[in-house]
Write a structure and sequence with these properties.
binds zinc ion, alpha+beta
């Protein structure tokens, strides 16, 4: 099933991790949300991207 999930375009600056939304703007900071394609997470592992994001932060 394809869903229209978007991600905050400014999450790297505004948030510790990607902020996903179904709307056109981020619910947290109001920045525009952009299409998250390629899908940043696997439906079977929806927190995988969160874990990878946390790893990236530690670099
Ligand atoms: Zn945001």
């Amino acid at each position: 099933m394809k869903s229209d999930i978007r991600v905050c375009s400014a999450w790297r600056n505004r948030h510790d991790r990607p902020v996903y939304t179904l709307g056109s703007t981020c619910p947290d900071c109001g920045e525009p949300a952009e299409n998250s394609a390629p899908a940043p997470f696997d439906p079977d592992d929806r927190y995988g991207e969160y874990r990878r994001a946390l790893k990236r932060r530690n670099r």
